[in-house]
Every structure is written in C-alpha cells, then in structure tokens.
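ingest -> validate -> predict -> emit
validate: passed (alphabet ok, no gaps, 282 aa)
predict: started
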Amino acid sequence: MRWQGGRRGGNIEDRRGLGGAGIAGGGIGALVLAAIGYFVFGIDPQTTQQITSQLGGVGSAEQGTQGSPEDQAGAFVDVIGTNVDDVWKTKLQGYEPPTVVIYEQGTSTGCGFGQAAMGPFYCPSDRRVYLDLSFWRQMESQLGASAADFARAYVIAHEYGHHVQTLTGASQQVQRAQQRASGQAEANRYSVALELQADCYAGVWAANAAAVSNGAVALEAGDIEEGLRTASAIGDDTLQRRQGGQVVPEGFTHGSSAQRAEWLRRGYQTGDPAACDTFSAF
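emit:
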C-alpha cells in the first residue's frame, strides 16, 4: 500500500508513554486472555469499569497532549486517518472528523476506562477512535491476519466507520432496537449488521483513497486480498473454532468470516456508502 507521501492532518492525541494503565497484580495475565479485543468481539467500552474491577483494578490515565507523533506507526495512523476523513468529506454532508487517540495498555475515555484488551474501539460519547497499536501484532501473530499495511489500515477505517454511523444516527437506532429486542440472539443480529456496515464503509474508503489524495494514498496489487484475508481471520465463526468451541451463529456479534469479507469487498467494488445497507440484508 502506498501511503508515505500522504497528507497528515495532525488530528492525533498521542498518550503513549504516560504510564496510565496502572495494572496491578496478576491483571496483565487476565488481559492477555481477553486480547482478541473489541474489534473482533465487540466488547462494549461502557463495561470496562466492571471488567477492570474483576481483573484487580486499573488506575486513571494521565491526559496527554495533542500532537503528531513522529514515529512510523504514529505517522501511518495520521496519514490513513486523514485520508479516511478526506474520503468521508466527499461522501457525507457535514462530516466532522473524529480525534484519534493512540495509547498503551489503558486510558480514560468518554465511555469509561479503555484497555488494550479491548482492541481498537470507537467511543460515541467523545467521538474519538482509540488505538493501542499492539493489537496489530496480536491480530497478526495470534489470529493469522495479514501484516500488510492495508490490513492495518482496514482496522482503522472500520473504526472510522463507526464514527460515520454515529453521525448518520445508525448507531443510535441500533441501540434503541437492541433495547426492544426479544432476546440476546435478536440483539446480536443488530450488532452484526452494524459491524458489517463498518466493514463495508472501510471498503468504500479503500476504493476512494487514491482519488482524494492524488494517488499519494492508494492500494497496490494484492492489497485488497490481504484485507479480505484479515476480514476472514476475525470472523466470529473462525474465532469460535480457534477457541476450540462450537460455532454458534446466534452468538455472533460481528459476522462470519464470509460475511466480513463479502461486505468489505462490496464497499470496495462499489465505492458507494449506499451499497452498505447491511440492515436490509438481515
């Protein structure tokens, strides 16, 4: 993937090195067990305080200062996030970019205390995307996802997709529908539709990345295949099998491997958010 000549918007808040995790005792071992994270399982950031209490306690994170990190990983997040913003400015009237917070282990958020164990997540309360970049390594080494730049960019674009859903009201509608649901299986179907739409939105970004950057950010040969490989690696059915359990579709929260790959592909092939109506498909 070509990205190093891309524009940097600087809409990054870098909290790395602040030592805000404060994980006590054996908590880190418990966190490793949960390290598949929000991007895969859909852990609600609102439940974090309860989770951390069970793990032995997590202290409050210090507040960092906003700026553009000069390291390679930080530069990548900045360039990709800026490009995603530029695409959505052409697709959604009144689009307002989120802030991206890069942190290590744990940090405070508008949705509670965020942990690396949750993986990348979006908090609608403060409209920020939270990234602990160690998730990429976990995704690649533990789940068989691709290490290609586009696979990592797909993760970022997926979280931006949740920001778009907040701006359009889709997330709020799903939350209300889940509250009215007759059971967990029905509530999960709404979650799957929301997550697959975020996958599709990631594909929409990929299709339009080059056009808004004069080719400075663009997919290259084989990139979309690496993204599809990653989408397949983090499907609910694949993860359930990896854990040695039975595949239970009623327990899906993000969609099967085939569904995740299909909606990422659909967004990429059409380049049109209107093609991402996952709710009608369910």
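Residues 21-70 have pLDDT under 50 and may be disordered.
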